[in-house]
Write a structure and sequence with these properties.
This protein is of the alpha/beta class. It contains five helices and five strands, in the order E-H-E-H-E-H-E-H-E-H.
Length: 128
């Protein structure tokens, strides 16, 4: 659960409206403020407008937009935690995200427990 005294804002980027709705409902229920985007251009507009505590990105956005979005986010110097979801093999995901800083991979299909656990880990204070 999000701390009631700190507003954690999460951006969910996925081309599947059902997944966006599921994640938005789940995270809102857990006390997070959630925005959603269905594609990379929409996500970039939101990233320029708001400050986020966490990004949840579908790596499998149409074309190679998911990977391009990751590169764009890092290229702009945004060092926020990311949860990358994909249908790809987990080993491949680890290679893709190894240089992203604070990031975790989640293989689709995933359960709500896995999402909650990853979000809590990524939003926990970093050890000194």
């Amino acid at each position: 659960m999000a701390d009631s005294d700190s507003s954690s804002r999460v951006l969910v980027i996925d081309h599947d409206p059902q997944i966006r709705e599921l994640l938005s409902d789940l995270l809102t229920h857990d006390g997070y403020e959630v925005d959603t985007a269905e594609n990379a251009p929409s996500a970039l507009k939101l990233l320029l407008r708001h400050r986020y505590s966490l990004l949840i990105i579908d790596l499998d956005l149409p074309g190679s937009a998911g990977l391009e979005l990751l590169q764009e986010v890092r290229g702009r110097g945004l060092r926020l935690p990311m949860l990358i979801a994909s249908n790809r093999q987990k080993e491949l995901l680890k290679v893709v995200v190894q240089d992203l800083g604070r990031a975790e991979c989640l293989l689709k299909p995933f359960g709500t427990g896995a999402i909650r656990a990853s979000v809590l880990r990524l939003l926990a204070p970093e050890p000194e």
